[in-house]
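Checklist before submission:
- one chain only
- standard amino acids only
- sequence pasted in full

Submission:
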Amino acid sequence: MNKKSIASFLALACTICVLIVVSLSTNKSKVSYDFMANYSTKGLDLDYSMSLDKTYDFSFDETETPFNLHLGKTFLGFKEELGFKESQNNYFSVNTYGYLGKYQFGRSTLELIGIKDAKLFLNTPELQEKAFVANAERNKWVLRRDIKRFSGKYINGIKVTESGILAAAHLAGPGGVKKYLRSYGAIGFEDGYGTSIRSYMKRFSGFDTSNIKPKRRAKVSMDA
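Returned file contents:
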């Protein structure tokens, strides 16, 4: 075979190889295309754009007050904290010793502030709130000198404050708190569940009770 024939043969072989490669490449592309063709967005709602005809306000209104159970050291916080400690804020609670309502009043204390109908009291939340304020006013009058004398001092490691004194008076009566303060904690008190004056002095320390005015004959109107 001469050189010319060899060259022709090599050219033919190269041409055949190129055709085979092109053919395989074309088939591969077709397979890939056919595979992808099985996936389509046809019929799907893909319009996530926002209309320019509308105004969208994503700003935060700082004047809005979010719901918050934490009332701080306000008088309302004082009332709600004490009510929770006494009955978990249940207006219709009666404990095993017969104490009534959200703030667990005894019948004798209710009579002192003008409430003689215990059933009406137990079923009237507004009356219970009035009773709490009236009792605090009466206790503040009875303990007015002790509040002035002992506020800011420490007894049994606890700082004495007006709100602590009033809370303790709700627990033990103003007479029991007088004895506790004037004995510098030597004469204590615990209720039937073991709650002490000291624990109330600590738990209810530092609340704002300045709006409670001392009243010697504080009474509750029965018109709730």
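Reviewer check: The first strand starts at residue 154 and ends at 155.
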